[in-house]
Amino acid sequence: GESVGLHLPTLSVQEGDNSIINCAYSNSASDYFIWYKQESGKGPQFIIDIRSNMDKRQGQRVTVLLNKTVKHLSLQIAATQPGDSAVYFCAERQNSGYSTLTFGKGTMLLVSP
Amino acid sequence: GAGVSQSPSNKVTEKGKDVELRCDPISGHTALYWYRQSLGQGLEFLIYFQGNSAPDKSGLPSDRFSAERTGGSVSTLTIQRTQQEDSAVYLCASSFPGQGRTEAFFGQGTRLTVV
């Protein structure tokens, strides 16, 4: 389930479960969305992206869903592994890269073996 | 180099001193971003450079903060008269805008501690 961590919401799952991390974005003009994974002591790393002309995109063990009607983005991780434990951020941008990238607040994912 | 490089990786400074943080973006990336991340928090936007355009400075928290980007490559973030609340990890990222994959690539950050 979810709980409030230090400052970030936390999702705790068991290894092998599927995880769903949600994000509400702010700007209806945003046309590009990214999920980043940040491990302790490291900078954020790209996981998957999606453009606003799509509503679903799949990668390896990850799927991103975009609902523009309610400005909602989700990241689904299949068969979650302990190595997936990290903080996950969604980010939005408008104008095909000629503007800054705005980040959501982040969700901490804790995977128990 | 292959990725975004930031230096120093750690910086401890006394309150009231000025500090400079350096970012070397990925070669050819025209966009460069600075973010600040406090412990357990999200990424706070500071400033964005895009090519020769005027930078977007809307995220700078006070006039003690400034940044420049020389020659469209290396960037320096300067914090004058540091305060304890400036303690955070400062992250730099770069990207190449366009229609393809345009995600920002991040450096490892500079951890600033003001004592």
Q: What is the strand and helix layout of this fold?
A:
The complex is a heterodimer of chains A (113) and B (115).
Chain A: E1 2-4, E2 9-14, E3 19-24, E4 32-38, E5 45-51, E6 56-58, E7 62-67, E8 72-77, E9 86-93, E10 102-103, E11 107-112
Parallel strand pairs in A: 2-11
Antiparallel strand pairs in A: 1-2, 3-8, 4-5, 4-9, 6-7, 7-8, 9-10, 9-11
Chain B: E1 5-7, E2 10-13, E3 19-24, E4 31-37, E5 44-50, E6 65-69, E7 75-79, E8 88-95, E9 105-106, E10 110-114
Parallel strand pairs in B: 2-10
Antiparallel strand pairs in B: 1-3, 3-7, 4-5, 4-8, 6-7, 8-9, 8-10
SS field, number of helical segments of chain A:
0
Mean pLDDT of chain B: 92
Oligomeric state as shown? heterodimer
Number of helices of chain B: 0
Describe the global form of chain B: globular
Main interface: chain pair and counts: A-B, 28 and 30 residues
Give the overall form of chain A. Answer: globular
The biggest sheet of chain B amounts to: 6 strands, mixed
- Our Rg estimate of chain A from Cα atoms comes to 14 Å
N→C terminal distance of chain B: 33 Å
* Head-to-tail CA distance between termini of chain A: 16 Å
Radius of gyration of chain B: 14 Å
- Based on helices, strands and strand pairing, what is the structural class of chain B? mainly beta
Taking pLDDT < 50 over at least 5 consecutive residues as the criterion, the unreliable ranges of chain A are 1-6
Poorly predicted spans of chain B: none
Task: Give the topology string of chain B: H per helix, E per strand.
Answer: EEEEEEEEEE
Tell me what portion of residues of chain A adopts beta-strand conformation: over 45%
Largest sheet report of chain A: 7 strands, mixed
% residues in beta strands of chain B: over 45%
Query: Which structural class fits the helix and strand makeup of chain A?
Result: mainly beta
Number of strands of chain A: 11
